[in-house]
Write a structure and sequence with these properties.
Elements (H helix, E strand, L loop, with lengths): L1 H13 L8 H8 L8 H24 L1 H20 L4 H29 L3 H32 L4 H4 L1 H15 L8 H5 L3 H24 L4 H23 L13 H31 L4 H6 L2 H21 L1 H19 L8 H29 L6 H36 L7 H33 L2 H4 L15
Helix pairs in contact: 1-5, 1-6, 1-8, 3-4, 3-5, 3-10, 3-17, 4-5, 4-8, 5-6, 5-17, 6-14, 6-16, 10-11, 10-17, 12-16, 12-17, 12-18, 14-15, 14-16, 15-16, 15-18, 17-18
Length: 479
């Protein structure tokens, strides 16, 4: 069962980055404009971020197995349509449909894990595997996407999901138990108004965040969507406060561990997303790596994440969940600090590899404890909601962080070029780009440090400690 749900989650995470290195090929074949090309990525991110909360609660109310399978079916169909797409508009529409399916897969899959593995030792192992998939799948996406694009075609970035999706659907019907809704009376009184306002509010926020990179943070369009999203979310809170059967039971936020985990995830996700984005740009645009070579360059990061996620499920017993997470964020901040030392004439081995490895060690130690905190304190009937809140925090936090850091990097690059006093050479452009990347990595390190401070302040060691978590036995390669 764990392998099954992790296969589905792997598809979701993989597709957030797999098309990045294929964008130039997609642009040429489908005649995207420079402005519209970003929506190959953003259409997926926007819909996924907007519907995660609804997807999490729907699993609780209508059955997690049912929502999980429906999400995989939608995701697989959308992948097929993307693979055979003939126009730019068609690709954008079905990328959005992929995001819609993913918004039901992720919270349903995580809630299946947390409600299935009730023993502390086994749950720690299961969440260690989940954390490795959730964080490491993005780097694997760059590797797989680069190889498929260079040796086959960009269309294979979508074809690859089809056999996996079919296999997951078939196995889900055989392996997953019925998983009836936790509260059938709540399903009959589904909070449709809350679903509309929460989804519209999150989508408006993510849309404004994503568009800020193109239009600027002070543009009326950006401010309008951000303000509209905040207003809708405030309306949503008012609706939930009065609703007989709320989409989000607000009392869930009384759990300190859940609050602390969601707020911390919102902060650190921006720093994590920046690694894949800016490091990928650096090795390709400055160091001249091919797509395949760039993707392979992230293998040490993935290995470090797997190792540290395995280590994390051993440390939560003796150190506690809170301390393990704080240590992870401090290590991740150190890795980002190392990456901020890159130069225009640098090398992968001396300036990129050390930072990626240290960063990976920190991420594995961070995400596994945060996932435990966000899900342990919730009851079985709220497992999907807790999972949806954590996933939404990661997605929205990552989008917001990347938009802010991209703006910062662009500003630093522009300032470097404007201060030259002469027409920039090719080397000047590379140096200017590196100046922007350095600033982004330093800011990302700051986000990780802020996350460590917040986790330390928002939750006590007593609140963070889960009594039933024993020190798990070593996890073998088969796990």
């Amino acid at each position: 069962m764990l392998v099954l749900v992790c296969m589905a989650q792997f598809m979701v995470v993989l597709d957030s980055t797999i098309v990045n290195v294929a964008l130039p090929s997609i642009q040429r074949d489908l005649h995207f404009t420079a402005d519209s090309l970003q929506w190959v990525v953003n259409a997926y991110t926007l819909v996924l971020g907007g519907f995660l909360l609804l997807g999490g609660r729907a699993g609780d109310l209508f059955g997690r197995k049912r929502l999980f399978v429906a999400g995989v079916v939608l995701f697989t169909i959308a992948s097929l349509m993307n693979a055979i797409g003939t126009t730019a508009g068609m690709l954008i529409v079905f990328r959005a449909l992929q995001g819609f399916g993913a918004a039901f897969i992720s919270p349903a899959a995580l809630s299946i894990v947390t409600t299935t593995f009730t023993d502390g030792r086994q749950r720690a192992k299961a969440l260690a595997v989940w954390a490795a998939i959730a964080v490491g799948g993005a780097s694997i996406g760059l590797i797989v996407g680069g190889a498929l694009t260079e040796y086959l075609s960009w269309r294979w970035n979508f074809f690859i999901n089809i056999p996996v999706g079919i296999l997951v659907v078939v196995l889900a019907w055989r392996l997953l138990p019925a998983m009836r809704p936790e509260r059938e009376h709540a399903a009959r009184g589904f909070d449709i108004t809350g679903a509309i306002t929460s989804t519209a509010g999150l989508m408006a926020l993510v849309y404004g965040i994503v568009g800020s990179n193109q239009y600027g943070w002070t543009a009326p369009r950006t401010l309008g969507f951000l303000a509209g999203g905040l207003v809708l979310l405030l309306v949503f809170v008012a609706i939930e406060y009065r609703a007989a059967h709320p989409l989000v039971r607000l009392s869930i936020f009384r759990t300190r561990a859940l609050r602390a985990a969601d707020v911390t995830m919102l902060i650190v996700a921006g720093g994590m997303f920046s690694v894949f984005f800016f490091a990928s740009l650096y090795v390709q645009e400055v160091l001249g790596f091919s797509p395949v070579r760039a993707g392979l360059g992230f293998l040490p990061l993935m290995a470090a994440i797997i190792f540290s996620a395995n280590l994390a499920q051993r440390l939560v017993g003796p150190l506690g969940i809170k301390m393990t997470g704080v240590i992870g964020m401090l290590i991740a901040a150190l890795g980002l600090g190392l990456l901020s030392t890159i130069s225009a004439n640098g090398s992968y081995m001396s300036e990129v590899l050390p930072g990626l490895v240290v960063m990976g060690l920190g991420l594995g130690l961070t995400f596994m404890p945060l996932t435990m905190m966000a899900t342990y304190g919730s009851s079985a009937e709220d497992a999907g909601l807790a999972s949806g809140l954590l996933n939404a925090s990661q997605q929205v936090g990552g989008s917001l962080g990347l938009a802010v850091l991209s703006t910062l990097a662009a500003h630093q690059t522009g300032s470097h070029l404007s201060g030259l006093g002469h027409a920039p050479t090719k080397l000047d452009h590379a140096a200017a780009a590196v100046t922007g990347y350095r600033a982004a990595f330093l800011a990302s390190a700051g986000l990780m440090l802020l996350g460590a401070v917040l986790l330390s302040v928002l939750i006590s060691s007593r609140d963070a400690r889960v009594d039933e978590v024993a020190i798990p036995a070593p996890m073998g390669l088969d796990a």
